[in-house]
Amino acid sequence: AALFYYAGHGIQVKNQNYSTIQVDATRPSGGSATTIPQQAFTVSTSPGTAINDAIQVAKQALQGMVFLPRGTYLTSSPLVIDGPVRLVGESCYGTVLKGIGITGYVLSLVGVNFAEVSNLTLHGNDGTTTDLLQFNNAAQSVVRDVLIQNARNGIVLTGTSWSNLCERVIHNGHLTGTGLTFSSCHGAQYTFTGCTFGGSYGF
Predict the structure, then answer these.
(1) Are 48 and 23 contacting, i.e. CB atoms less than 8 angstroms apart?
(2) Distance between CA atoms of 92 and 25, rounded to whole angstroms?
(3) Exposed, middle or buried: residue 23 (CB in 10 Å: 0-12, 13-18, 19+)?
(4) How far apart are CA 50 and CA 8, in angstroms?
(5) Which residue of 1, 46, 112, 115 is most buried, as measured by CB atoms within 10 A?
(6) Alpha carbons 150 and 130: distance in angstroms, whole number
């Protein structure tokens, strides 16, 4: 049996092979988790903070999963995966992480092994200083079934990384920079399968 974590709740044992965190994007102080309604959240409800908190709990579960139901999550806080965590949406068209006024990355995989991002859209809200996804010293991690839209750069690869997989990552919205950028990569090894990248400056 695996452990299921819910924000504001204790541990429940379920007959599944992964750990799940049900993120409560409204998350009042001291409140318990609730199912996220299918709606767009405003920045004032701090979904980015809730998701980052959930990622930290999932990290303790070793490949725990943060599941984001269908909806649009507006975040002014950069999201960081720095442990073996699976960040999974309901579908690549149904779950949207939209960065609002972010300078830098909407989502970063930093110094991590065995992370996963899948089944969601990363949207930059047309930010001219907003990039969508960074691999920074990441290894044996997967980005799968992800759409990238409306930002400066799509995916930026930095640092020393190896054995990472990008599968069915599709650029289908305007980028003012590049769809895929290699920046100061050392000994990097990536596999791209079924991906489409573009941008004003190509790769």
Answers:
(1) no
(2) 19
(3) buried
(4) 11
(5) 115
(6) 9
